[in-house]
Design goal:
The complex is a heterodimer of chains A (about 190) and B (about 625). Helices cover about 75% and strands about 0% of the residues of chain A. Chain A is mostly helical and about 190 residues long. In chain A, helix 6 runs parallel beside helix 8. In chain B, the strands form seven sheets. In chain B, strands 1, 2, 3, 4, 11 and 12 form a six-stranded mixed β-sheet that branches. In chain B, helix 4 crosses helix 5 and helix 10 runs parallel beside helix 11. Chain B has 17 helices and 27 strands. Chain B is of the alpha+beta class and about 625 residues long. Classes of the chains: A mainly alpha (about 190), B alpha+beta (about 625). At the A-B interface, helix 3, helix 4 and helix 8 of A face helix 10, helix 12, strand 19, helix 14 and helix 16 of B.
Amino acid sequence: MGRPEASDRMSIDLTQDFFTLFGLPRRFDIDEAKLDHAWHELQSQVHPDRHAHLSDLEKRRSMQWATRVNEGFRTLKKPLPRASYLLELAGIDAALETNTAMSPEFLMEQMEWREAVEEARQAGEVDELEQLHQRLRLHSREVLESLSQELDEAHDYVAAADTVRRLMFIEKLQHEIDDALEALET
Amino acid sequence: MALLQIAEPGMSTEPHKHRLAVGIDLGTTNSLVATVRNSIAVCLADESGRSMLPSIVHYRADGSIDVGQSAVLAQASDPRNTIVSVKRFMGRGLKDVAHVETMPYDFEDSPGMVRLRTVQGVKSPVEVSAEILRVLRLRAEASLGGALDGAVITVPAYFDDAQRQATKDAARLAGLDVLRLLNEPTAAAVAYGLDNAAEGVYAVYDLGGGTFDLSILKLSRGVFEVLSTNGDAALGGDDFDHRLFCWALETSKQSPLSSSDSRRLQIKAREAKEQLTICEEAPIHLKLASGDEINLVITREKFAELTAHLVQKTLGPVRKALRDAGLGPEDIKGVVMVGGATRMPHIQRAVASYFGQEPLTNLDPDKVVALGAAMQANALVGNRKTEDDDWLLLDVIPLSLGLETMGGLVEKVVPRNATLPIARAQEFTTFKDGQTAMAFHVVQGERELVSDCRSLARFELRGIPPMVAGAARIRVAFQVDADGLLSVSAREMSSGVEASVLVKPSYGLSDDEIAGMLQAGVERAGDDMAARALREQQVEADRVIEATEQALAKDGALLDATERAHIDEVLAALRRLRDGDDHRAIKTGIDALARATDEFAARRMDSSIRSALTGHKIDEISV
């Protein structure tokens, strides 16, 4: 039965941060091709398929490593988790789940978006939903640009934390549109 | 790639030690076994030269069991005891199985998985599948001239945890050492990709006898990365047969048929469907037990019309998979067709029209999965010889995993299409003062309501120290391994008191039941349990000894003299035990060696990671 001390002992490097693990500079703007490449190379070493002929212990360790590498990849691949992770590394607790003290303008804007999505959903207007999706994507691109400026240039983590929270709202909305589209299709 | 030369954990340094490994395609209609011989993947045939084994099991009243070709005729003469398409029942309850009313079986709806009452007693689908796998194992052993070191078994990519677990249990029951469960479309992509040195984004459209999968893969420099997968685990060629069967019944205005007539008409329907692949029309002619006759002709056009909704049904998963991958049909470089059902001309037309290109049909859709599985088995067992054999599969989980929360809603913990292996944890808390236990319900599926998802496991965490509501922190961790199989654990964090429970969902079959079936199977085969246990441990000991020797030869420098002496000593002890006849002692020796090399293995892994990154950087500088 998985003794915790055993798994801790073998994990000398499990604590190193994901940017180091993937050999990337600790920045928000990353070279995606490089990330993909490093991910493939790391998995070439640690993936359970590489250790399938070895002992159970080695298989288990390989699974832990490969899991860690995949977690790192998922964290760095998408902008939102990458930004949250950078904040975490900078010691900023963005309190992402609870701190919802957003500016009234932003909340107003969100409510308008939400109403538009809900109306289109109820009316079954696929085209309208697709358009909202497109507009939202353009909007989120702008937000990502300011995030990159705040994190990589100004190093203003407090402002970045606020932008990250805004981005979370936007992503949630995007998921809702996706779900609505999927529901209408089936 | 410089990196792959630095450390090759999957490559054998002793090429003369060829291990026997097979890939098995356990299909709804037919099953196959393949192996890599002289660097070429080949399907293994039976003594009459047939490589496809019909997935049919006949339980005879005299206690014998026929599998495959010899069971084909019994379909009509003894339908109740002749199980066809058993894959449709794997990990499924009675309510999940379509067309039960036209099936001639005597079902028993036991919790979890449906069972079948036969003349030889109640059989679980796992046991029936194990009969098929056993025949393939014996065929492979006879053909390769020895006991197998391991097998890769393929499963539909869209199989959920319960269906995967059931498949793995069946393999275990059949005496196979499962190296990996491999998704069928991924296996096909390996066979296709390696044969054609393909690069780019491909779709695999896999319509088998009873299952449909659509996977999108990115092939680049020896890496097969599954971007997304979708499908329908209860849609296949069988449904096309069934449609034709129903049409024949309606058109001929026959009252409900006897099970024997019904089965014979189903066979006729399937034959007609196959004939339509080559001809414009096909006859359906059957003389019933009553003396009445069914005499019909079906045209290609009519058949396409009857089954148009089934073809449409496959396009839903195609759209979803593309959307999950963030791609459109125009981004797909080629569409690989897999499964006998893709021979139907109107399927090929529909796929061509959706993707705007002719699908790739230059490989045998019946064999490609088994061949890909054989290639992967060969690599996993450690038979890789050169860098050219070197590739990596990165597969995904097809369906989200979650936990039931208040109000019968699902809280997703692991999202679908996440690359395996993956671990995810979620924290929960108590909602009553002094609460000391918490119940968890693990489900799989995309729907919001628990009742619409598949229930995988229920468990309780007990011994939570009494606290005020909301103070306990219970961390539930999901781990999905490279086979796509889930284990779940829960732990109370805030008090420092540990109470954890591990769940391995084993749908319907308990470990005790499996052990019992294994025993029964072994007795029937006249096999000696102890001899088999000894052989298994010796194989494992050889494997571990060889792996350790290789590691020492390559990375011995990572150890100081004392550490090296200790490992050498334990290694020598295991070599002595291996030649004895006590399987338990060998097991103890293997465990001892594992413990002794634990730290060494950690250092090696660490150093290979460093090399990976160093290699990477050197690469970059030299460019």
